[in-house]
Amino acid sequence: MSDSVDAIVVGAGPVGCAAAHALADRGARVVVVERMERGPASPFAVEWLHPSAADVLLRWGLVLPEGGHVRGTGVSMHLADEGHEPVVVPYRRGMRAVSMPHAELVDALRDSVVERPGVEVLTCARVTAATPDGTVRLTRDGQETRLRADLVVAADGRSSGVRRALFGHTPQTVVSHSAGVVLEGPGLPVYEFFQVASEVPGHGVAIYSIAPDAIRVVLDVPPTHPRPPALHAYLHRHFVPLMPEVLRRPLADALAAGRLTWSATGFRPRVHYGQGRLALVGDAVGHIHPILAAGTTLGIQDALSLAAHGSAEAYAREHAGAGAATGRVAMALYRLLSRQEPGTAQTARMAVDQLRLSPALRDAVGDLLTGDEPGAAHLPVVTAFSTMLGIPAQDIAAAYGPDAYLLSRR
């Protein structure tokens, strides 16, 4: 391996693999540095890929495990206390999501990168320093190595060491705690929709299949939830009724067995995109709440934009505005669905009613969440809806402009 390459990507998660492919598409010689040998089995990392993101990764060689994945057809949102059926936002033009266990997704993506000409992957390697002049220091097998590149891409996630070294500690705003579990067993349904439901303000649940015999459930719990021993009864009271009937007993059993895995969740503003020759992509920039599964779409948009701009400085200067709309819409919908803020209960019902009554609005919101190219005819209706949600109109307009890096345009 040469000590000088065109690009170094730090992190081989879905966004890091996307960055490596996007740069290789433009002729770059790329080294990917990853500290783990295989994908982690995290209950809160990406498992559901909205169609545009899934199509990009499939085009780059993502291989779906036979019998170990699900193709999704849309998103379902439900305020369970309003007495209506869920609002379904179907994917348009027959597009389909991909859902599969996170570790298997990461392993399949890394395999696609390993097989890519012009890309070298270094696993079990830890980056100890990355500087704006394009220098990276890493350790592997007890040996320290120094590499230089015209472009260094930090795709090392929410706890990005590269971001901290460049811009200091920028804490996330914790808005809730997530408790995740996989329900498995005979007789469980296969869900083709990514389902989000809320009944009591501050309590929400996401439900989606990750394989024909496995369903991921993520409980969104206020930070003020009680601690043991009162926690079990609290979770049972607030979340079991939110589940489809067929999943209530499996979730109750999982709660009784203590099978939940916990994490603090929230958001970090997507402000810092890079400095000098060093660019940040995906959650290394910042992140939104994961309950609507839009984070990977944002990260892949970042990767495509960086490769198209060709330099960290141009990307950091031009991309921030064009990438704002998806994050704004996702966070606003999360706030409405969780209804944690004063006055949002009535606004949430109004917003859901608008979605229920307007096919054009459902199409537009679906486009923004999934990174698909929006139709210009949708701009007035989605702008009005976004005003209701408190999103600046210019952020929405940016998603319809020529500089927006929407996945369906690539």
UniProtKB/TrEMBL annotation:
Top-level taxon in the UniProt lineage: Bacteria
Enzyme class: oxidoreductase
Positions of the FAD-binding domain: 5-307
InterPro entries: FAD-bd (IPR002938), FAD/NAD-bd_sf (IPR036188), Squalene_monox (IPR040125)
Keyword terms of this UniProt record: Monooxygenase, Oxidoreductase
Molecular function (Gene Ontology), one example: squalene monooxygenase activity
EC number of the protein: 1.14.14.17
Protein name: Squalene monooxygenase
Organism listed in the record: Streptomyces umbrinus
